[in-house]
Structure to design on (302 residues):
């Protein structure tokens, strides 16, 4: 989708307001919303310039704003599990794991915990490892999320991260750790070793993360067992939403009557539009978006 200058300016103003409300530095805010610091600067300062920010990035911004403005969440069992894991990791200064298939609300709950904590004066650093493909990318990305980036070799950068965190009270959240394929996952050993007893760490991803570590350890691959051994306690595993949770979310977003019957699967003729077609929290959100989409009117006049 291509956005007009007016649409881009409106989104830019909202993003700027979000940044101001967050109380974060631009680098930390960019890590939270998963947009590079340089691109965030263009979005805020130069939305009218064609081609400076790609349509794909504006689409990311649009979805970010829609999540903030167009969805009412409820407290679910998964959200409680994520909150509990984060709080335990923070208090005990240990590395803990949250596992769940896609769409079960891992990232949503982590970011809600971050927002709530920061309103109460607690520092929660969120780092998304989804696009990391090398150890260097991981360390650089983590430094940027912490707002302590300095160029250099990895060992020196690790020392910088350790020194930075020694002087602060914070929780480090590393999301999408299942994107660390194969041996790359062992970079987490260095992080957990360097930050031992300095801060809590929450590692979040799909079951591939633990399965990868278990397979490597079983075959005695280098550092797999050592990485797994540094995890504190068994992973917290998230579950699919219950019917009660689905109904509560729909009702919190104003869906009642016939529309509620459809998305809850009570209308057999329209069962393909039920959340059970994709029994995840993402599937529930898709149903809400679908109903909003059906309310959009199009003018076909030539």
């Amino acid at each position: 989708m291509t956005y007009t200058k007016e649409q881009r300016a409106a989104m830019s103003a909202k993003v700027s307001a979000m940044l101001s409300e967050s109380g974060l530095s631009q680098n930390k805010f960019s890590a939270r919303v998963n947009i590079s610091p340089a691109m965030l600067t263009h979005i805020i300062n130069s939305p009218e310039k064609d081609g400076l920010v790609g349509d794909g990035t504006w689409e990311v911004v649009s979805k970010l704003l829609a999540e903030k403005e167009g969805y009412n969440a409820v407290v679910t069992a998964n959200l409680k599990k994520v909150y509990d894991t984060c709080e335990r990791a923070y208090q005990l200064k240990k590395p803990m794991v949250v596992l769940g298939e896609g769409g079960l609300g891992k990232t949503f709950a982590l970011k809600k915990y971050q927002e709530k904590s920061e309103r109460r004066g607690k520092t929660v650093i969120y780092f998304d490892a989804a696009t990391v493909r090398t150890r260097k990318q991981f360390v650089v990305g983590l430094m940027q999320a912490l707002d302590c980036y300095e160029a250099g070799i990895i060992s020196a950068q690790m020392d910088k991260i350790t020194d930075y965190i020694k002087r602060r009270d914070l929780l480090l959240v590393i999301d999408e750790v299942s994107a660390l394929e194969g041996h790359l996952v062992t970079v987490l050993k260095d992080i957990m070793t360097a930050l031992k007893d300095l801060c809590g760490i929450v590692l979040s991803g799909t079951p591939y993360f633990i399965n990868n570590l278990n397979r490597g350890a079983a075959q005695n691959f280098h550092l797999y067992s050592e990485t797994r051994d540094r995890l504190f306690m068994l992973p917290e595993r998230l579950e699919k939403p219950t019917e009660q949770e689905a109904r509560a979310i729909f009702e919190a977003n104003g869906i009642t009557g016939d529309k509620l019957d459809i998305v809850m699967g009570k209308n057999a003729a329209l069962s393909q539009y039920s959340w059970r077609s994709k029994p995840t929290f993402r599937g529930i959100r898709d149903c809400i978006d679908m109903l909003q989409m059906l309310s959009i009117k199009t003018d076909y006049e030539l």
Remarks:
- DSSP finds 14 helices and five strands in the chain.
- The beta strands are 95-99, 123-128, 170-175, 200-205, 236-237.
- The CA atoms of residues 120 and 257 lie 39 Å apart.
- The two ends are 21 Å apart (CA to CA).
